[in-house]
Write a structure and sequence with these properties.
- It holds the Pfam family HD.
- This is HD domain-containing protein.
- One of its GO terms (biological process) is dGTP catabolic process.
- The chain is built from 13 helices and nine strands.
- It is α+β, with helices and mostly antiparallel strands.
- The strands form three sheets. A four-stranded mixed beta sheet has the order 1-2-5-6. The protein has a three-stranded antiparallel beta sheet with strand order 3-7-4, with helices on one face. A two-stranded antiparallel ribbon has the order 8-9.
- Strand 5 and strand 6 form a beta hairpin.
- Helix 2 crosses helix 5, helix 3 crosses helix 9 and helix 4 packs antiparallel against helix 5.
Length: 335
């Protein structure tokens, strides 16, 4: 992406070292993801919120891991200001930088949510989930150029961007926030909170050397320590995931509907196009052929050009109930 933009406009004030830094940031921007990715981030932040801690972001952990890597590999010659630049590219923070602002829209675009990170995971996940990809990020990249220090796109890419945001919604609804995944995430929350006192799970993110060895093998560690009473509750919850101990009851159930006889879990999911209740297409800067100024589409113009949904955000609440099995003597027992 950065090389394409330079090719489009050779007069852009970016050096080969700047482009190398962008490439390193693209390679390293997700180093900070813990096992179970965004799910773990939600779990640890809920824990920190309840215990008065600061919010944890995987991008910040990526920056810490980057510092750790450079410290461990001192033969790699990168200047201090370049390391800081790479970290800012990862977090998308350009406020204190003297470098061109458009560089910060390539990897983590805080302005209008179009970046190579999004193209990468949507293309990859769609492929491995068997969806196929409904948008062409290569075409979008080809149609991009810098106007007024921001990345803009040809107006004829509008439909492609709608397809991209819809692909994101579909991927979340079908996979990331599928009802079974939501249940497992909820139970994983209980597993980690139950095991944290013994295994210090939430402290691992504060030490990059320790964090390096923090993988999803943490679940095997919980399971194999059968003699450890401190992990008994965590093992129980983990086995609820393995043996699918909950059955699905339906959507939009009343969370207050707890009859005391059956253990219920409620899982909420919010779906959108990446901009909450707003239409993300309104924020994208476009340009027309042979024009040197950029523009954004209004809601009215978008209504004329596209078949848009009536709303861009919805919430669903799923209800699950602990399965009950019948013992030989005829009494009921919860798994």
């Amino acid at each position: 992406m950065v090389r394409h933009l330079k090719q489009q406009n050779p007069d852009l004030e970016i050096s080969d070292r700047d482009m190398l830094c962008v490439e390193i940031a693209g390679l390293c921007h997700d180093l900070g993801h813990a096992p179970f990715s965004h799910v773990f981030q939600e779990i640890i932040n809920e824990y920190r919120k309840e215990n008065g801690g600061e919010e944890w972001e995987h991008e910040d952990a990526s920056c810490e891991m980057l510092e750790h890597l450079f410290k461990e590999n001192e033969d790699i010659k990168v200047e201090r200001n370049e390391i800081d630049f790479i970290k800012d590219l990862i977090t998308g923070k350009s406020e204190k930088s003297q470098r061109p602002k458009f560089l910060y829209q390539i990897i983590n675009n805080k302005s209008y949510n179009i970046d190579v990170d999004k193209w990468d995971y949507l293309a990859r996940d769609s492929h491995f989930l068997g969806f196929g990809k409904s948008f062409d990020h290569e075409r979008m990249m080809k149609m991009s150029k810098v106007i007024g220090d921001q990345i803009c796109y040809r107006d004829k890419c509008l439909d492609n961007f709608y397809d991209m945001f819809y692909a994101r919604y579909r991927q979340h609804k079908t996979a990331c926030k599928h009802k079974t995944a939501l249940l497992f995430n909820k139970l994983l929350d209980k597993v980690f909170n139950s095991a944290n006192e013994q295994l210090q799970i939430f402290e691992k993110v504060d030490d990059m050397k320790e964090f390096t060895y923090f993988t999803d093998s943490i679940l095997e560690e919980i399971l194999k320590n059968e003699d450890n009473e401190s992990l008994k509750e965590a093992r129980k919850k983990l086995k609820d995931i393995i043996y699918r101990s909950y059955k699905y009851k339906g959507t939009n159930e009343d969370e207050n509907d707890q009859d005391g006889k059956h253990e219920k879990i409620f899982c909420k999911a919010v779906f959108d196009f990446g901009a909450g209740s707003e239409n993300p297409l309104e924020k994208i800067p476009f340009y027309r052929k042979d024009e040197t100024e950029s523009f954004t589409y209004s809601q009215e113009e978008l209504d004329e050009r596209l078949l848009l949904p009536s709303k861009f955000q919805m919430e669903i609440c799923h209800c699950f109930e602990k399965k009950v099995k019948v013992q030989k003597e005829g009494s009921l027992k919860t798994n």
